[in-house]
Design a protein that fits this description.
heterodimer; A: 109 residues; mainly alpha; 68% helix; flat; B: 470 residues; alpha/beta; Rossmann fold; 6-stranded parallel β-sheet; 6 strands
């Protein structure tokens, strides 16, 4: 087993523990935004897609790089935007007391 | 390692730290938005660093730049459009699609790496290949499985469990084929072998999700989320990038925790859920005391009177509320009741809806303040002090049969709705919930049934309450 693989494994395992520790404190009410935030974070695979495009010079490499770039960037952009959109809705108090509904129906019809 | 490469690795670790900080800030709705901004900043830093790294290395071709930028623009555009236009009720599908593309991209990274290494040298270095193959397998399973899950959630594919005789044998054959091919390509670089691994994994993903029913979706989405994270971490092993390893591990942990929470909330093991839905065999329908006894139907006016003159009301929303898109109507009813001095809160079962926290997002969209949304353990003691429990489109999670042994849902933690002084259930028919058994709550003498679509029913109830409280 190479030293690189060993280092990578240590980082992986420690990060798992950090993840368990941090995420177990997230309240149930935020579980959907949490999953969506986790979604945007795994969009980091875009870095991998970019590095393919940077090192390849075969047509199959370009095809793979292209598809991976489309997938990963949809993941990154969509994930962050939708998480932000959801989190903006969580309020401690109603913004307009006694008239809570109606207003925001624009996008939901 | 050159100074430049050393610096970029350090910056990747900084980006990963932003992800951790971002997730940490999600422990409170008040700081969660800042968390998302930290996380976004981390992503921007990682991408900018990669661009700098690529420009510095200088081996990229003009085609390479074009492929990368055009791909990113198209993907980013699609992601932006989907994120801006998606309805909150459709969030589980979107999350599932993001799982699919994330897993797919991770698998592609490994496939490309395998092709490159196999072309360059006669033998593949073993340590690289194991993670490469794990990435290919997990990524492909996630890709096809998540697309099927999204299709089921969208209704494009039936949400009922789909299985066929011998499905388990086919699954085993596929798994064996995948593992055998993976073992072969480990020792002998073979592109054909790699494609067999990919195809077997894709087929396995489809067959894994098809037999899983709608109400088990919270578990499946969480599990696929964990898979995606693991695949991305494996991609980090493949290309030797710490940011991917750390980020992937964080997502893997997040998905793992949510999977466990969801499975516990249904008192089922993950294996049991994957193997198949309820009612596929040994779960005989329990005979109820008083089954077949009449249920009491109630009119809008009578229900309105009960609600208007209550001092404490707990609303119990379920998937039916999301399916009817009635989150704004329920918030309006709650608003009218509150302005009349009624104490209103919401009881959210962990698996209500189609993904973890689905109900909370819907109600947040309808402007319900999050302190009103109570978790199961906090709200259960309150039912005994509640005048009216209003159940909207929730079924199995309110069934007292779960407390007795010998039913399909025995042992599942439920909301103690039957402890309330009176219960109103809004439901379209006496149809069964996912577990396929009668809900004893409906035949409880304290329960009145209001047979209507959630949206219509809530509008009628609100009108009735308004005429009473003027």
């Amino acid at each position: 087993m190479s030293t690189t693989l060993l280092t990578d494994l240590v980082i992986f395992v420690l990060s798992l523990w950090v993840g368990f520790e941090v995420i177990s404190k997230v309240p149930a009410t935020l579980h959907t935004p949490l999953m969506s935030a986790a979604n945007s974070i795994h969009g980091i695979v875009l870095v991998g897609a970019m590095l393919i495009a940077a090192t390849t010079n075969s047509w199959i490499g370009y095809v793979i790089a292209f598809v991976a770039a489309v997938f990963a960037s949809a993941n990154v952009v969509g994930g962050y935007v939708v998480t932000g959109r959801m989190l903006k809705m969580f309020r401690k108090r109603p913004t307009a007391p006694a008239q809570p509904a109606a207003a925001r129906d624009g996008q939901a019809s | 390692m050159s100074g430049f490469n050393f610096a970029t690795q350090l910056i990747y670790v900084l980006a990963a730290s932003c992800f951790i900080l971002g997730l940490h800030l999600m422990n409170n709705p008040a700081t969660a938005r800042r968390g998302n901004q930290f996380s976004t900043a981390g992503m921007v830093i990682a991408i900018a660093t990669t661009l700098a790294l690529i420009a510095h290395a200088g081996v990229i071709t003009a085609t390479g730049w074009t492929v990368m930028l055009v791909g990113a623009l198209i993907g980013g555009g699609v992601g932006l459009y989907a994120a801006r236009t998606v309805q909150m009720t459709a969030m589980p599908q979107l999350v599932s699609m993001f799982n699919a593309v994330g897993g797919g991209a991770a698998a592609l990274v490994a496939i490309h790496d395998y092709i490159r290494v196999a072309a360059a040298v006669s033998g593949v270095a073993e340590s690289t290949s194991i993670t490469t193959l794990l990435d290919v397998i997990i990524g492909s399973v996630t890709f096809s499985g998540s697309i099927i899950a999204a299709g089921k959630l969208q209704g494009t594919i039936t949400s009922a469990p789909v299985s066929f005789p011998g499905a388990r044998v086919v699954n085993l054959v596929l798994a064996a084929l995948g593992v055998a091919a993976a073992g072969y390509v480990l020792s002998t670089p073979s592109l054909a072998g790699l494609w067999i691994v990919v195809l077997a994994s894709l087929a396995f993903g489809v067959l894994m999700v098809m037999p899983i029913g709608g109400a088990d979706m919270p578990v499946v989405i969480s599990l696929l989320n964990a898979f995606t994270g693991t695949a991305v971490a494996m991609a980090g092993f493949v290309i030797g990038n710490w940011a991917l390893i750390i980020a992937g591990a964080l997502v893997g942990a997040s998905g793992g925790i949510l999977t466990k929470l969801m499975a516990d909330a249904m008192n089922r093991s993950i294996g049991n859920i994957i193997v198949g839905g309820f009612g596929t065999g040994d779960t005989a329908v329990a005979v109820l005391p008083g089954a077949g006894a009449g249920v009491r139907a109630i009119s809008a006016d009578d229900a309105g009177i009960q609600l208007a003159y209550a001092s404490k009301v707990i609303i119990v929303p379920g998937y039916g509320l999301a399916a009817a898109q009635a989150q704004h109507e329920v918030a309006e009813l709650a608003g009218v009741l509150e302005s009349h001095g009624v104490d209103v809160s919401y009881a959210i079962h962990p698996v209500a809806g189609r993904m973890p926290g689905h109900m909370n997002v819907l109600l947040a969209e309808a402007n319900v303040p999050y302190p009103q949304l109570k978790e199961m353990d906090d709200v259960n003691p309150e039912f005994a002090r509640t005048d009216v429990a209003l159940v909207i489109g929730a079924n199995d999670v309110t069934n007292p049969a779960a407390r007795r042994p010998g039913t399909a849902i025995s042992g599942m933690p439920i909301l103690d709705v039957d402890q309330a002084k009176s219960i109103i259930v809004i439901k379209r028919s006496m149809g069964h919930g996912y577990a396929g058994i009668d809900n004893e709550l409906y035949t409880n003498p304290k329960t009145s049934m209001y047979f209507a679509d959630a949206k219509t029913a809530l509008a009628e109830l609100t009108a009735a309450v308004k005429t009473l409280v003027g």
